[in-house]
Amino acid sequence: MRNKLLFILTVLTVFCAVSVQAQVTYKFSDFDYPEEAVTWGAHSKVSYFIPVKASKLLKSNVLQLDFKASDVLDISKSFVTVSVSDMPVATKAPSVEDHTLRFTIPFTAEDIKSGFLKVDVLSNFNIDESICDSYNEGVFWIKRLPSSYINLDYDTSLAPPTVTISSFISKADKILLPQNASYELISYAAYIKFYFEREFAQQLEVLNIPETFTAAYNNSILLATSDKLPASVQLSSASKTTSKSNGWLELYPLTINDTDSISQAQALIVTGSDKVGFKKAAETLLSKDIISSAYSKSLAVSSGMDMSYPILKNDRQVSLRKLGVADEITEGIGKLTKDITLPRSIFGSKLLELELELNFTYRPLKNEENAYVNIYMDDVLKYSHQLDNSGQFDEAITFDHLELKKNNLLRVEFYYIPSGGLCVENPVSFYAQINLDRSKFKAISYKDDENLSFFYFPENFQSATPAIYLDIPLNATHIIALSKLVNLLNPNFNKHRYLYPQILPLDSLKANTGKYSPIIISSKATSLTAFSSDNAYFQLDDTNYKFKKEDYENYFNISYTDKIGVNQLFKKDDLTGMFLFVPDGNAVILELLVDQIDGQTFNNTGDLILASTDDSYFFNLRDTANAISNQEIQNGFDLFWQEFRVFIIFGLFIIMTVLLIYIFQKSQESKNNIVDEN
């Protein structure tokens, strides 16, 4: 009997242990990495950053990496090393049979830094010694296979409440709002959802505050002014002693009742006695430094932060250091590259001409050594220069007729040929280092305007601060799309001061005319025409969709039997605007209209998006391929004048001189004829 009882207790213990943990397997595609990826080069390094919630992590976590390497490698001299959190954990050679490699690496919560598991894969490959490696770059490659995965062992039990706000943040996974939330609550819910995803890689689900709390609402952020808090939430006495104008944050224990067992959960209450106080409290969650150092269970906020955002200036310049470029020495022989990402948002979409002041120091060249620096913009060679024995380079490189993408790749390539050629034994290495403070990008000239295209979003909204105007039956389901829109308005991932557009009711639009670049989201087809009726390409009249295409005399008028949403760009005076028609305020249609904005390219873009609840599509109504704008004509004339103005002026001077001489001679002849006649 005693043994039987021990057996039953053991089974129950194991069952309980299994029930509170969950093995979750993720592919690399779940973290926005390609399903498989190829890395080229004899000596290469690729890094992966996997978002992991360390606070919920148990011990049975595994990273499996499967690779296939080039078949022509000398496997006795070729190796791959994997490091986790900057510590090497394994080094292997490709298998003899098929040149594959498999790494199975356990890890724990201690390996998670700043919310990420950092994984580096370093390869060092060689081929037959009789073949010169430098002339066979294409034979060196390693491919990560789709069978690679990461297995996370998460604790799903109802953990004890955390002690401080700072320790709670990494556990937060939901935002709770009252029914019929105000515009202020909706706005800050969208801001906070965006911020947590950008800064902490945490997805926050948005729900309404329930009538009764269950375990499903553990680790929620509850946003509400004090008069909208549930009756069951009774804040601490300290909250009643703070000034009424202050914001208040408090870790609050939620008493829950699930399956007749009472246990503890928690929520972070973000509140204030009025809208002003609430904003102060909510803005605390938009500062990583403040909430990460909030080592208390509650805090009062007497002053929030500046939510304004500076408008770009046309003469702006930015150093490579401010772009986040790493300070490092480039060393080796042959082709040596350094890649620099230039976001279009730095200078805006109207940029026409850009200058790069490039300054670097390199090892002075000896006789019979040759070295070159090549500059590429998005894989197009823009500049090439042969280096000398001075050891210093300081030149300005101009990029004109620009059509920048959302993120552009500047590549600085050093090509060094040692004395005796690339295949000489024991060559002397070349090395160089870019001065990140003296090297800078500078805007030279801008276009007056750009095509009204989603390809240029959000930079074509930088002439004035954007504001979002709502005229839909608003609820928590719309916050996903609003958060995505805030994300699209903040394309620069190296910045930590973000643009938070005001979210306002539509009836405030006319009072703010000319103040903001309007983004109108409405369930009424007439909302745009009431504000701007000069859109020449598309009109929405109740259920009648009127299309006008620039290169067609007649185009389509259509009435759809199903509900079709629309996203179109328009001009109002000097401002660019966006109008989203969302039938019945359908949250799915709104999300698709926003999603389709992203990912458009210069050669595949549009100025109109249509969406149903299942799919979306964009296309152009303007004839951008054949149209030549006045600005382009003016730019062409400016370039021609700048290049040939001396010759033109000199030519006009010669013509005027000859003409004056001719007129003078004719005058003299006429005078002589008159004298002769007399």
UniProtKB/TrEMBL annotation:
Highest taxon in the source lineage: Bacteria
Membrane topology label: Single-pass membrane protein
Pfam family name, one: BcsB
Main location: membrane
Compartment(s) of residence: Cell membrane
Alphabetic keyword roster: Cell membrane, Membrane, Signal, Transmembrane, Transmembrane helix
Signal peptide extent: 1-22
Membrane-spanning residues: 644-664
GO cellular component: plasma membrane
Listed GO biological process terms: UDP-alpha-D-glucose metabolic process
InterPro entries attached to this UniProt entry: Cell_synthase_bac
Alphabetical list of PANTHER family matching this protein: CYCLIC DI-GMP-BINDING PROTEIN
Name this polypeptide is given: Cellulose synthase subunit
